[in-house]
Amino acid sequence: MGRAARKGAAFSGAALLGCIGVAFLTAAAWMVLSEMRSEIFAATVIGAVYLGAAAIAAALGMKKPSPPPPTASQNPSAEDLSPLQLVVLSFVRGFEQGRQKDRSS
């Protein structure tokens, strides 16, 4: 069985077990809340919890993905950098060139 199929099966199983757990927790919450107050109170509280969870899930789903990080080909020009940044950049480039030279020899 392929790796993607195993992942999909595991996720589907987890989702099914999670739904069963939510159903039992909802039933338990209904029993507790209806004993404490009334059935209308229990329905209101449980409905508000599910509505809040749906709002959070919708907000996460509407979130725009962050832009990809800049690649090595998008190096800033020397005019955009401060003198300290130029010194650090020169040090890092020299360090990388030294590592590459050590690897090739």
Key descriptive features of the protein:
105 residues, single chain, 3 helices, mainly alpha
Terminal CA distance: 44 Å
So what's the overall shape? elongated
In helices, the fraction of residues equals over 70%
Percentage beta strand: under 5%
Poorly predicted ranges: none
How many helix segments?
3
What is the number of E strands? 0
The overall pLDDT average reads: 85
**Radius of gyration computed on alpha carbons:** 28 Å
Order of helices and strands: HHH
Q: In terms of structural class, how would the helical and strand content be classed?
A: mainly alpha
Largest sheet: none
Descriptive account of the structure:
The protein has 105 residues and is mainly alpha-helical. The chain is 76% helix and 0% strand. It is built from 3 helices and no strands. The chain has helices at residues 3-36, 39-62, 83-104. Helix 1 runs antiparallel to helix 2 (39-62). The protein is elongated and about 75 Å long. The model has no long low-confidence stretch (mean pLDDT 85).
How do the strands and helices of this protein lay out in sequence?
Blueprint: H1 3-36, H2 39-62, H3 83-104
Task: Briefly summarize what is shown.
The protein is mainly alpha-helical. It contains three helices and no strands. 76% of the residues lie in helices and 0% in strands.
